[in-house]
Amino acid sequence: MSQQGQGLPHDEVAAIFDGQEGHHKLMSKLNYFFTDPGILNTALTHPSVSHKKNNQRLEFLGDAVLQLVISERLYHQSKEGEGKLTFRRQRLVNEQTLAQVARKMNLGAHLHLDKRFAQDGGRELDSVLADTLEAVLAAIYFDGGFSAVQAVINKLFHQLIIDADAGLDAKGALQAYFQAKGEAEPTYDDLSIEGPPHQRVFTVGVRHDGNLLATGTDTTKRAAQQKAAKEALNILEERGRAHEATQA
Fold it and tell me: The whole model's pTM is what?
């Protein structure tokens, strides 16, 4: 693909950044060179500097763009159900992981921060780094379009996506499912305990918003909770497929 097709300018265009060596280094790490340096400046401006012109609105959009690109990549990479895919995405699109990616490219060194906030360690806060990375991704989206930001995200998150472990237990996957929807976490109730002390059989129910989703039975409470969560995931995925069928 040509440089222009990836949002990369010709050499003479890149020369306009010679006076902003720091930004040029950042763009090199992103493998994307902005045609509008102003939007990059906005993406790097923390609210402590300006209440009116800062990166908060870009951060809002960048979060959505990142979610979409990662979701599409995982969708094509794995044939797993919604619960495990949601967990994989949650492990990739969260404050800690975004801050890790930001530190790898030394993003904190490029931030525009209030002097006192910077002296107090603002450049190294996970929340600040994660928000700024999302803002930068939104800036790339505006400057070069979806294909440009998709290429950048795939580059930055490539190894993390490959290593994303869906081996989370069923309880964690169920929790991730509801967290992704912005809903309350599921809760577990002990429904019954049967058998002699050396051969206990536990039955546990998992609820969401007070509604019983599923039950599980096993010789330990933990195992019963896992079975209940797994059954709940199966039920939710089946409901999702049924809903899609009715919309087709």
Answer: 0.64
